[in-house]
Design a protein that fits this description.
363 residues; Porin; 12-stranded antiparallel beta barrel; 17 strands; globular
């Protein structure tokens, strides 16, 4: 049985005099090269002549897959373009996330080593040519996982095995977070349950022209339907707003950007929450009309603060790369991977691999 036990409020300005972080993997060399390549491509694209006409598949609908941060409302990656009036989308996404952290502080103790399968059913409908609405129903399964050996192979061949993975090498499964001897989060292996259902709306403010980008305003609301005793829901509603931007940079090159703010309510396991900022920048290259490659950078600020552990108190920076393939005129298949970057260490999920299918019924 997983539990989220309420605890008192923690001091906000406290800094441990003895900090030992054996937290999430540190692979700066490889990851810095990845993000440098991404921004290099972006700068090169911006210097090219601007055109209009290419239709991309949009950024990947990535969210913060960190097991505790995703208890609050997510504003996943979105394009600015909306569905045409009467069009209906059905999207099924399955993501597998490896989480590992070992953080021992005077104030807090974190031991996490598990993988989570997140399956999401996302439905969207075009109310008008400028307005669409959507709903997402997620489910979770937490287990030992299968990605440890592949991750170890990559780490051995690049920057070495991470401190957290070394410390927990003989541990098959762990999920326990305490503060001052009080248990905040504890999860059992094999837990399965419903997550918080989210509702979304998107209104397109600007249509793309040769000089102007497409621009949309987004809203989101989360209902507390998730199983809190399994750490799959927060037990409180959240709300969010955001902007989405698309711009064709050159033939077959498209730039995407998102900026969001989320406002959680209540407390989680007795912890105070704060507003969350998130954003992404993505570049998509259309290899053909039916196939594209996308590179993406995401940032998320933390919903928690003052807990005494970097796993909860720090933000998340991640890189994403993947492909999109239109199997049929109305069926899109996408695959992407998410890797934590070491601009901020000790707070992100280790690695996520995801696949999704989107079927569009046209009016």
């Amino acid at each position: 049985m997983a539990t989220a036990v309420k605890a008192g409020r923690f001091s906000r300005g406290w800094i441990s005099p003895i900090r030992r972080i054996d937290a999430v993997s540190e692979r700066p060399g490889l990851l810095m090269r990845q993000i440098s390549c991404l921004f290099g491509v972006l700068i090169w694209c911006v210097s090219l002549p601007l055109t209009v006409g290419a239709e991309g598949f949009g950024p990947f609908p990535v969210r913060n897959f960190q097991a505790l941060d995703q208890l609050v409302l997510a504003m996943p990656g979105e394009r600015a373009a909306v569905l045409k009036k009467g069009d209906f989308d059905v999207r099924l996404e399955v993501a597998n996330t490896a989480s590992i952290a070992r953080d021992q502080e005077e104030q807090a103790d974190v031991t996490m080593k598990f993988e989570t399968v997140r399956a999401g059913l996302f439905l969207r409908y075009g109310l008008t040519d400028r307005l669409e609405i959507g709903v997402e129903v997620p489910g979770y399964h937490r287990y030992r996982g299968f990605m440890e050996e592949p991750i170890l192979g990559v780490e051995r061949g690049t920057t070495g095995i991470s401190p957290a993975r070394k410390a927990l090498r003989e541990t098959a499964y762990a999920f326990n977070i305490t503060n001052g001897g009080r248990t905040l989060f504890q999860g059992a292996k094999g837990a399965t349950g419903l997550g918080d259902i989210s509702f979304y709306g998107k209104y397109q403010l600007l249509k793309e022209t040769s000089t102007l980008p497409a621009l949309s305003f987004r809203v989101g609301v989360k209902a507390p339907t998730g199983e809190t005793d399994q750490v799959f829901g927060s037990g409180h509603p959240d709300a969010g707003i955001g902007l989405a931007l698309d711009k064709t940079l050159a033939t077959n090159w498209i730039l995407y950007a998102n900026l969001n703010g989320v406002f959680p309510t209540g407390r989680i396991a007795g912890l105070d929450l704060q507003p969350v900022m998130s954003g992404l920048v993505a570049v998509e290259y259309l290899w053909t009309d039916n196939f594209s490659i996308t590179a993406q950078f995401d940032y998320y600020s933390p919903p928690f603060h003052g807990t005494g552990t970097r796993v909860l108190d720090k933000g998340v920076t991640e890189s994403v790369i993947g492909v999109s393939y239109r199997i049929l005129p109305s069926l899109l298949w996408q695959v992407y991977g998410v890797e934590n970057l070491d601009f901020i260490t000790g707070s992100a999920a280790d690695f996520t691999i995801a696949t999704l299918f989107t079927y569009r019924m046209r009016s």
